[in-house]
Amino acid sequence: MTTETESLQPQIGTNERPALDQEKSMIEIDDLSFSYDHGKTDTLKNITLKIPGNQVTAFIGPSGCGKSTLLRCLNRMNDLVETSKITNGSISILGEDIYGPRVDAIQLRKHVGMVFQKYNPFPKSIYDNVSYGLRIGGEKNKKRLDEAVERSLRSAALWDEVKDRLQSSALGLSGGQQQRLCIARTIAVQPKIILMDEPCSALDPIATAKVEELITELADEFTIVIVTHSMSQASRVSDNTAFYYLGELIEFDRTQNLFSNPSKKQTEDYITGRFG
Amino acid sequence: MKALAIALTLGTALAVTANAQNKIAIKGSDTLGAKMVPQLAEAYKASGNDVAFDIAAEGSSQAFTALEAGTADIGMSSRSVKDEEKNKFTAAGKELVEHVAGVDMIAVIINEGNAVADLSTKQIEGIFTGDISDWSEVGGKPGKIAVYTRNTASGTYKTFQELAMNKRDYGSETQKMAGNEQIASEVAQNANGIGYVGLAYTEKDGIKSVKVEGVEASPSHKEEYALSRKLYYYTIGEPTGEAKKFLDWATSAPLAMKVIDKVGFIPAK
Amino acid sequence: MSKKATNKKSRGSFDGRGSGNFRILGLQLQDIIKAFFGGNAAIAVVVIALICFFLAREAYQFFPDYRAELEVYRKSGQEFVGFIDDEASKHQEIKSLAFQAYGYEIYHRTKQHEQILEVYNELRNRSKTAAKGVLELRQRAFDKGDSIAAELDPKIKEAAEAEYKAHNTRAEKVISEYLAEFTRDDLSTASLSTIPKEDFELVKKSVSESMTSKNKEDAEFILETKMLRDAASEAAAKALEPFYAGVMEISAARNELDKMIKELRPHALKTKQFAVAYESAEARKEALAEGSENATSEERRARLEIESKRVLTTPPNYEERNQILYDSIEAHSAAADSMLTQTRSGVAKLDASMLKSQDAIDRVAIIQKKSKKLSDEINKTENALRVWNHKEPYSGWKTFFGFFFGQKWVTNSTWQDFYGLAPLFSGSLIIAVIAIVISVPFSIGAAIYVNQIATQFEKTAIKPILEFIGAIPSIVLGLFGILVLGDFLQKVSAIEWLANLLPGFPIESRLNMLNAGLLLAFMAVPTIFTLAEDALNNVPRAHSEASLALGATKMQTVLKVVFPAAISGILAAVLLGFGRVIGETMVVLLVAGNRISVPDFTAGLGVITQPAHTMTGIIAQEMGEVGEGTLHWRALFMVGLILFLISLSLNWAAQSVIRKFSRHH
Ligand SMILES: Nc1ncnc2c1ncn2[C@@H]1O[C@H](COP(=O)(O)OP(=O)(O)O)[C@@H](O)[C@H]1O
Ligand SMILES: [Mg+2]
Questions:
Q1: What is the CATH topology of the domain spanning C424-615+645-664?
Q2: pTM for the whole thing?
Q3: Is the CB of A64 under 6 A from ligand 1?
Q4: Rounded Cα distance, C36 and C34, in Å
Q5: Domains identified in chain B and CATH numbers
Q6: How far are the Cα atoms of A9, A23, A28 from residue A3, in angstroms, in the given order?
Q7: What is the pLDDT of residues B29-63, one digit of tens each?
Q8: Assembly ipTM
């Protein structure tokens, strides 16, 4: 597999950006294999991937191919599955091996935020939702919390809609608003990376458009990895796209290239809708 | 005890097979009629006496009405006859004869570690009604008295009220226990405890019975002990025939004494 | 197999004919199914309604009946005597305290000797327990030597005596070994361990001497101590003569009043008996009249009518009988006044400066306070007596109030039964609160642990164990409470630093509310645990995932997200646990101590170590003895109805809590 991804690279190259392999990478996945059952079977197989910083990277692939699994490896959410295990390889973020002894999963997650498929605000007020991450981090100063809440809500393009009802329950918002609130909640702790797992799949088209717009805006500030089952969404929001199939990384390239000129048969079949 | 058991089972067997010719009617008190007299009757039959018993126990007063009406050969009473009852017999030219059936004795018990040895009836009344609440009031080591009594369903609850408490109500601080056994074990456990139990329970570890008005609660003092009452048989005139035979046996035979002892009373002899 | 087949077949035919045609008794199949399941729910509702109705039917007559009975209590003059009784009992408190002060002082002055005797007593009892086996053997040998067989055969006697000697030597050894180990600190009461060392050694010696001497006499030292004690006590009594004179004067102050009570009490009781007889006569007459109306034969009717005429129907002449009470008001004033003056003069003689015991001095202070209040009490009684009127009807309010807030639950009384709920309700409530306060942290902690933190293995191990608690019969727990927990608590509570630290310690009675509360806490665990765990389980995983993804620790997630999200369910669990606990009967009946009085709240938190009776306990204890339809019977049903309503409202509260919060979600 490794050879396959490596062999891809010479073909990459666009006018707007430097070659993908020349970018400074934020996340480096090296020959990673991952198992949900103590190593009996590998759900992810020998994945090697360098995700550049401050860009949007999309993971696509048929359902069950391991996109979410890989995403959850990046903030070690898979640690919660007792039987899970990294069977091979490593992941580094900014050069630090995140499964290494020096890294604490709790600390890591403060730097690698996550937005889920189904919007899941806490049954608390809007304000409490956004300030949650800071509060558990020990922040008590009311003024700083207020500022952070406002800043995050503004960044999530939600401020104008909710500024008058910060103390009312988050569950009273519309679905799209709730998902943007979840994004605001995530960026409130100022992570470096935001992982998004099909963040629009539960939203209507208008709400989806708003979130997509938000994602592109946020890319200035954050490194974003987004799992999506919608190829059009991937092409709209992402700079780079990785295509997975049956736990393997098939192809990783600039999004434009990948969609206009896939180098693998499986990729082509998938994006032309022949399966998946 | 074993002999008694055999006698009792034998008795039941005999009662079924024997075609009894003679019948003794015994009526009155349910204190006697509940256990003691029926068991005496069984044991009596088991010792080879061909008699049938008709036992009815509705209360001591029944003893006298039944005797007067001639429906009973022997009356049972947990109290001695009242004057007005006696008068009726006298008026009819009959003489009522009293036979002591046994003694019912209530011992007042305290914790073994308690130095108090003697209480007057007045003091007992005070303690159980709640007027006296500290051992120092009756010459004991200071400490709040914890009073354990039977519960209201018990006959002893009432009897004790009559014998020891001047019919006054129990104090609200008293604790109502399920039975003799429980009273004994709580008193054994509580250095400031006091309670009352049937004589059979005074042997338990950790408790001792106090003297009442200077009299020890023991079978040998049944006459003077304040908290005891005699249980009686009554007959019209000196008994004769089967009734006499049974009464003689029930008031003196060793087996009868054993039965009386077993059901928790003190044999008269 | 075949059943399946027929099922299929019938469905087939059902399909074939079309749903509209398949009818039984004119009902469609769906209707029948619906009716069946709907019916089950309806049955539950009906049963609850029936229970309610049944309880209410037995209980509703309670208030009118109770009121009628209290009216008789008034009419017969018992209420009047009751006032004087209450007044007398106020004096009794003073008298009681005076005797106590004296007793405490005497004890204090003879303490040095008493202490030795107490230590002696304790050591004797303890060595008896320590050497129980040998002593029994020794007793057996003694009995053998004392038997008739031994009288007849000197060989047996000799053997028995040798045996006795052997056991005695062993007993001596066991006891002396036991005593050698025993130090003053091992004594049960801390105050006893201040006994001088040489005395302690002498006591030890006396114990082993007396226990191994054949006639079991007390040793020289003990006899001597007893003599010293008696002498000291005599000397103390002599020194305290003036004080004692005061005590006696206080005691005698009530003589006149007592005489009055002694006269009036039986009189009022007699009036009451008349009233009761008259009341039953009314009923009898009615029954006879009814009987004669329904009589089948002319002869029988005539007989019933004659009998009915014979029944006494004149009510007691209350006016006349109560005249003696009205006439005694002046005499009462005199008696009360003399009680007051004598008490005061007696109290004046209680010179605290003569006393050395702090307890005695404290009591004298209380006596002085109480004797000042005595005149108020007397005035109150005077007024009550003056305005008392036997004809005044007893108000329904007072009856109602008397039941719910009455401090007295007295039954089977020769004087008057009172049904006051306060002691029972407070007992039930305090025990339930103890149980919940103890149980909630444990069960909710366990629920959180099992649901959020435990590994799969721990889950499968802990859950069934906790749920098994619910299967333990409560009688078993009750016995455990009496035999094990009670003793344990009592022992622990006697540890000196604990006794100083915690209110209510050391525990006097091993049967008490704390003991019952602990057991009930244990019993409430499965209910609260299971329901709370369910509530936690119902919190969507998405919430905790979101929290964890924000860098929260497991603990932060549980406390800040999962727990608050489940709070409604947990609150409901606690409420239902409370219902479980307040309705529990067997354990409280066996373990709570069954004292029917409102707990003494002046003890502060220590109140929990007092014994109490409960609403469930009283029903279980007294229902067996009461006659159907009597007032006592109705009172117990009333208590049952209240219990039922409490459970019902707890359930309702639990449900509305859940509803309210789930709307929020
Ligand atoms: N917690 C888990 N435990 C065991 N297997 C899992 C778990 N989560 C996902 N899987 C399995 O891993 C594979 C990849 O799943 P996932 O990463 O969710 O795919 P995708 O997100 O690409 O649809 C699937 O076969 C799925 O069944
Ligand atoms: Mg997925």
A1: MetI-like fold (1.10.3720)
A2: 0.77
A3: yes
A4: 5
A5: 2-102+230-263 (3.40.190.10), 104-221 (3.40.190.10)
A6: 10, 20, 16
A7: 777 887 789 999 999 988 888 899 999 877 777 78
A8: 0.89
